[in-house]
Design goal:
Elements (H helix, E strand, L loop, with lengths): L1 H26 L1 H10 L17 E4 L4 E4 L5 E3 L1 E6 L5 E4 H6 L3 E8 L5 E10 L1 H8 L7 E6 L14 E5 H5 L6 E6 L2 E2 L9 E3 L12 E7 L6 H5 L18
Parallel strand pairs: 4-13
Antiparallel strand pairs: 1-2, 2-3, 4-5, 6-7, 7-10, 8-9, 8-13, 10-11, 10-12
């Protein structure tokens, strides 16, 4: 009888394993990809994971974007517009000459991985708000990334994310528009020229390749939230995972 029970148990485990694998496969790209997007490689701390078609590169020495197709070059520009009194377009040199801030923070993945103590430098959102003088008390800021994406959830063909302006201006949230990591200009795979770092939100909220910030009264769902609603708009990391809180 114990031998028979052991065989039955083995069969049931095999069935369960096959069922789980089939279920995971059926979930498809929009669930599997964020796991891949965030999975950590201990040798490099940060793996290269992105949904953008990276057909461009950036040179921080010249501030120029180079398009892979045809080799065309153009200066990087950060556009800040929407519900503002004075829309602004900043070159990379102008961007990096603004009063900078630095922080060391953890980077959390929705899958369950965390990279501890990453050094970032860049701008606080308040510096951009000073330049453009928001009007009509806009409640949100929508960030747009360069480059098209492999998918177009909800008809969106590039990576987007939005935040409450109050959160962006709250020092306790430690949200940074980063152009350096560990004292060096961001590498291409890390989101150069500019990316958002939001330590208390999952990594899919920390949009890379930012080229436009749009003040708005309308909340926009981010690319992954549009792709699959299991990825919440807030993307808040559970308190049990926050070392700094």
């Amino acid at each position: 009888m114990p031998q028979l029970q052991g065989k039955v148990g083995k069969i049931m485990r095999n069935i369960a394993r096959r069922t789980i694998l089939k279920g995971l496969k059926a979930l498809g790209l929009f669930i599997a990809a964020p796991i891949s997007f965030c999975a950590e490689a201990f040798a490099d701390r940060f793996p290269t994971r992105t949904v953008e078609i990276r057909d461009f590169s950036f040179d921080p020495q010249t501030g120029m974007i180079r398009r892979e197709k045809g080799g065309k070059t153009e200066p990087y520009k950060l556009i800040i517009d929407g519900l503002v009194e004075k829309p602004v377009t900043l070159s990379y040199a102008e961007l990096t000459s603004l009063p900078a801030a630095s922080q060391v923070s953890d980077f959390h993945c929705v899958e369950g991985w965390t990279i501890s103590q990453v050094g970032w430098s860049g701008l606080r959102f308040a510096e951009l708000a000073k330049l453009v003088k928001p009007r009509e008390d806009p409640k949100y800021a929508v960030f747009h990334a360069m480059g098209k994406t492999f998918g177009t959830p909800g008809g969106v063909d590039h990576y987007i994310e939005s935040f409450r302006v109050d959160d962006l201006l709250d020092p306790d949230q430690e949200i940074l528009l980063a152009f350096e990591k560990d004292g060096k200009p961001l590498a291409q795979e890390r989101g150069a020229p500019l990316r958002v770092i939001a330590p208390f939100r999952f990594a899919y909220k920390s949009i890379k390749f930012v080229h436009r910030v749009e003040f708005s009264n309308k909340r926009r769902d981010g690319w992954w939230t549009l792709a699959n609603s299991i990825y919440s708009w807030d993307a808040l990391v559970p308190k049990r995972r926050l070392r700094q809180r």
